[in-house]
């Protein structure tokens, strides 16, 4: 399939990612709940806990999509704080903005269309940056990590929530079977879009494992790096501090 993007070049990948999220935006939240059986809510809740966010802080939720993390951060940082929901995709941003506005989250949230590789913010701006299920879609991940490092304040923290590797063989087999059969099928039935969900499964398989991503974060300038596996390593939360 053309979704095996080892062989596709940079522009192709960016175009593909744009098409996928343009296509899934309207059904994104529903599919998230179904595909993860609701567990993505726990992964996100843990991410918020690990962020140590406090009132008054400035937070960037990059690849923020439909805004699950942004909504939680907005409550924590309050009127004196600010949350920027940034995403490369206008359809995802629109769904996010509508959802948060309907939920009464407003005043301290800004929406910015931006590429994680080239963040349009001045140096040393944010106390905390999160990227949840976004990094694997970014073409040049090293560049994106350096860009995040640049816009963090010294002492600020980056949290990367992403699919990773389980070292449990049985779980790994079950998970592969699930992601390459059930996911595209659900995509077909619910969103009438099997290809996008096949991309999802393949992008998960291609994403760097825990130790590789930690090394990438170090190379991008982060210190005190580490990660926490969830659901047997199917998902990992990586942390790094800007020195
Ligand atoms: N963070 C949200 C969540 O956890 O539910 C959304 C995750 S969604 C799977 C991935 C998001 O990454 C999409 O909204 C997509 O548009 C965005 N994205 C992909 N490539 C990007 C890039 N280079 N820069 C910024 N956002 C990007």
Structural write-up:
Methyltransferase required for the conversion of demethylmenaquinol (DMKH2) to menaquinol (MKH2) and the conversion of 2-polyprenyl-6-methoxy-1,4-benzoquinol (DDMQH2) to 2-polyprenyl-3-methyl-6-methoxy-1,4-benzoquinol (DMQH2). Helices cover 47% and strands 21% of the residues. The protein has one domain: Vaccinia Virus protein VP39 (Rossmann fold, 3-Layer(aba) Sandwich), CATH 3.40.50. The chain is globular. Helix 1 crosses helix 8. Strands 3-2-1-4-5-7-6 form a seven-stranded mixed sheet, with helices on both faces. The protein binds S-adenosylmethionine.
Biggest beta sheet summary = 7 strands, mixed
Question: Helices and strands, in N-to-C order?
Answer: HHHEHEHEEHEHHHEE
* CATH homology-level superfamily: Vaccinia Virus protein VP39
Instruction: Strand order, main sheet: write it out.
Output: 3-2-1-4-5-7-6
Mean of all residue-level pLDDT scores: 93
CATH structural class? Alpha Beta
Q: Unreliable stretches, pLDDT < 50, 5 or more residues? A: 1-6
Termini Cα gap: 42 Å
CATH architecture: 3-Layer(aba) Sandwich
Strand content: 15-25%
Number of domains: 1
Count the beta strands: 7
User: Based on CA inertia axes, which overall geometry fits?
Assistant: globular
Classify the secondary structure makeup into a structural class: alpha/beta
Helix fraction bin: 40-55%
- CATH topology call: Rossmann fold
User: So how many helices?
Assistant: 9
